[in-house]
Structure formats: structure tokens, C-alpha cells
Design a protein that fits this description.
Order of helices and strands: HHHHHHHHHHHHHHHH
Strand content: under 5%
Number of helices: 16
Helix content: over 70%
Distance between the termini: 51 Å
Shape: globular
Number of strands: 0
Radius of gyration: 20 Å
Oligomer: single chain
């Protein structure tokens, strides 16, 4: 009861936005329910700045409902396919992460962007958006303003990617008979898990692919998310060395904080599916869970839209926006070039 009292009103608001967004997404698959939910949330928040009791539930939905949706996607996925997809996408992931971090480092020097802000935007762009920022911030001793600005920048480009990447995929000629090429593109080129799932869901809706693209994109994205661990560990060592030279207390690396546990639950769900199918259970048994996952993604998108303040970001985030835009464009180009080199499209 305490949970419902604290979060119920916010969850209900997200649900109310998600239901018509889901229905409209089926009517207009070229847009998709996830994108409609994001835009609806953004419009509503322009007129509803002080959310009061609903705020806690909205924040809970944007994080926990999304993670639960990703875990549910694990049901119906074969463990062997997951490992194969991760191996296939690994060269692209390494190149895109390297590109983003190098661009962020160069622009920090060129534009004189504060070091912590540049690091957070670079890491958030290259790995997994808000989760990477949350894991990295304590390691580099970032303050609340730096964290908020970096998350706002990442969110801005997440929304753009969720809206425009399906259009870009169609324009450049991704195969529309299966979701492999666009799924890998979304999983390697879009910052946050939320927008990866939104763009992949839209592509599935556009070409009636079920959840094929979504499965591919989420697997690639979760493989990429694991880079949080070596990146934060490396930054921890760098910061500790710098602090030691200045006689300050060293920062501590936390594996528990860095490792996204929902990835483990996703793999467990896939193991359950793989074992069940090998024992003769019909794979269609897991279809309702995957449909529920799609709806939960739309619900999470509504919450993310409600949490946004794009107008404020544009007014205050000039240089960080430039870093984010450069990282985003660099990652997109490298992902496309690598896929072309590897004959994925």
C-alpha cells in the first residue's frame, strides 16, 4: 500500500498516456506507439511543470518499467542467438565507443567544456545514456548540475534518434524483410536503451516484423551496455592517480553500481526459454510476454517524455549540446560504415 500511495498516481498518468499511444501506434505504424508516447509526454510537461505526487511514480516508470520490459524480451529468445548477435556486433560497438570518447575528449579541449560534463556526455553517448552517466558520475566526483545537464543532452538526442532513425533506415535502404540491419544500427548508434527500443519497435511496426528488430536491437544494446564496467574502472584508476598526486582521497570503483542487473535477468529469461523450447514447449507460449513488453516500453516512453524539459536544455546547454551532437553524428556514421564494411547491409 505504501508503494501505491507513493507511486500510484504517476504510474496511472503514464498508463493513461500509453493506452491511446499504443492504439495510435497500431493505426500509424510508420510513427509507432513509443514515439507517440514520448511526444505526448513532452507536450504535456510543457503545461504541467510541477507534477507533485505524480513525480515519484513517473520516475519509477521511466526506469523500472523499462528494465522490466527488457527482461520480458528475454522470454522467447534463444541463448545461442543472443551470443551470436553479441559477437557479430562487437567490432561495431568497440569502434562506436572509441569514436564517441575521442570526440568528447577533443571537443573538451577545443570548446573548453568542463571536464566532468564532457566525460559524462561522451560516456553517455557511447554506452547507454543515463545508466552510464549514473555509474560514471560518482567515479569522477561529478556534481548534480553536471549530471543533470549531461542527462538532458543525452535525452535530447535520444528523442531525435527515436523519431528520425526509422526514416533514415528507410532512406538509406536497410532490408525491410528482416530486422537484422536496422536492429544492429539502432543497438550501436542510439544512446539510451529507451530510444533503442522505441526506434526498433517503430521499425517492426513499419514492416510488420513482429518483434524481430526489437530482439536484435536489445541484444546488441545490452552487449554494448556491459562496456560500463571497463570504462568506469578505467576512469576510476585515472581519477585515483590524479587525486593521489594532489594528496586527495581516491575515488572508489563499485562493480555493484556499474553492472546493470537487468542484463543478468534478461539472460536468465533467455535461458528459461531456451531450456523450455528444447524440452518441446511451443515458442508461441512466450508471445504474450513479448506483447506485454512492447506495451511497457510505450508506458516507459510516456514517463521519459514527462520527465523532459527540452526548452530549458536548448536555452542553457550550448557547448554540451555541441559535444552531444558531435558524438551522436560520429557514432551514427561509424556504425553505418562498419556495417557496410562487414556486409550487414
Amino acid at each position: 500500500m505504501e508503494f501505491l500511495k507513493k507511486n500510484g498516481s504517476g504510474i496511472l498518468v503514464c498508463l493513461i498516456i500509453a493506452i491511446p499511444s499504443w492504439l495510435l501506434g497500431k493505426t500509424f505504424p510508420v510513427i509507432g506507439g513509443a514515439v507517440i508516447a514520448i511526444l505526448a509526454g513532452m507536450v504535456i510537461t510543457m503545461f504541467w511543470n510541477k507534477k507533485g505526487k505524480a513525480e515519484a511514480g513517473i520516475k519509477w516508470t521511466s526506469k523500472l518499467i523499462l528494465q522490466a520490459a527488457v527482461v520480458l524480451l528475454g522470454f522467447g529468445m534463444n541463448l545461442g542467438v543472443i551470443f551470436e548477435t553479441g559477437k557479430q556486433s562487437l567490432p561495431i560497438i568497440v569502434c562506436t565507443i572509441t569514436t564517441s570518447l575521442v570526440i568528447a575528449w577533443i571537443l573538451r579541449k577545443a570548446l573548453k567544456v568542463p571536464a566532468n560534463t564532457s566525460i559524462l556526455v561522451g560516456v553517455g553517448s557511447s554506452i547507454c545514456g543515463g545508466s552510464a552517466i549514473a555509474a560514471t558520475a560518482p567515479v569522477i566526483d561529478a556534481d548534480d548540475d553536471e549530471i543533470a545537464q549531461a542527462i538532458a543532452v543525452i535525452f535530447f538526442f535520444n528523442v531525435l534518434a527515436a523519431i528520425f532513425f526509422p526514416m533514415l533506415g528507410k532512406m538509406i535502404g536497410f532490408d525491410t524483410l528482416h530486422g537484422d540491419s536496422f536492429g544492429i544500427f539502432a543497438g550501436t548508434a542510439i544512446n539510451d536503451t529507451s530510444s533503442v527500443t522505441a526506434a526498433a519497435s517503430t521499425w517492426d511496426s513499419m514492416w510488420n516484423l513482429g518483434s524481430e528488430t526489437l530482439n536484435k536491437a536489445v541484444t546488441v544494446k545490452l552487449t554494448r551496455t556491459l562496456a560500463i564496467i571497463p570504462i568506469t574502472l578505467g576512469l576510476s584508476f585515472i581519477r585515483a592517480n590524479a587525486n593521489a598526486k594532489e594528496g586527495k582521497k581516491t575515488s572508489n570503483f563499485s562493480l555493484k553500481r556499474a553492472f546493470p542487473m537487468f542484463i543478468l535477468y534478461f539472460v536468465i529469461a533467455a535461458i528459461i526459454t531456451t531450456v523450455c523450447v528444447n524440452m518441446g514447449v511451443d515458442a508461441q507460449v512466450f508471445t504474450p510476454l513479448k506483447e506485454l513488453s512492447k506495451f511497457m516500453i510505450i508506458m516507459a516512453m510516456a514517463a521519459i517524455g514527462l520527465n523532459s524539459n527540452v526548452i530549458q536544455l536548448i536555452k542553457t546547454g550550448g557547448k554540451p549540446l555541441a559535444v552531444g551532437a558531435s558524438c551522436w553524428c560520429g557514432i551514427t556514421i561509424v556504425s553505418l560504415v562498419m556495417q557496410h564494411i562487414m556486409h550487414i547491409w
